[in-house]
Amino acid sequence: MYKFIGIIKADYRYEYEPLPDNARLMVDRSKTIAIIAGFLGITVGYSLLLVKQYVLNNGEAVLNKPFILLGAVIGALLLLLHEFLHLIPYPENSTKIISIKGGTPSAFCSAAVSKGAFIVSSLLPVLLGIIPMILFMLLPSTYQVINTLLWTTGTIGLASPANDYADALRCLINVPSKCKIQSGNGGFYYF
Asked: How many CA atoms lie within 13 A of 50 on its CB side?
């Protein structure tokens, strides 16, 4: 069951399911990896723009610059969908919470999931970057307004999961393959 609980204070505490005695706290995500991942997302977006404009279009403009701001607003609004996508791999019978915590959209579910489901959960939001970018590359360059909206939302969609990329990487590196992962007080635990 999905619940949107609205705007909550930054110090709000979720209700956690009990953890088994053998649960171990995952190592913290690397801020450096998250920053690099965000930068790479932006770099991919700009690289695709350059390919479309200069390689596929002989240098003719493919964007209508006044619509970049509208695309950025749409990209920011899609952050709520980004959080919803995180919750899809969690069990159907679990409570899945979406909120705005400390001014940032947030997703939470305290049900345990497999390592693979956790990685999928971490990476699903990148679809909000991949799908618009594919459409951007496929549409004719004469559709400048739509291209601008797709490129801007796609670039935001590739960069905004920066912390999620770092979560997936730390899970791949530090969590044994047959483990379950669950949210708990202080972070993610595996057992």
From this structure: 6
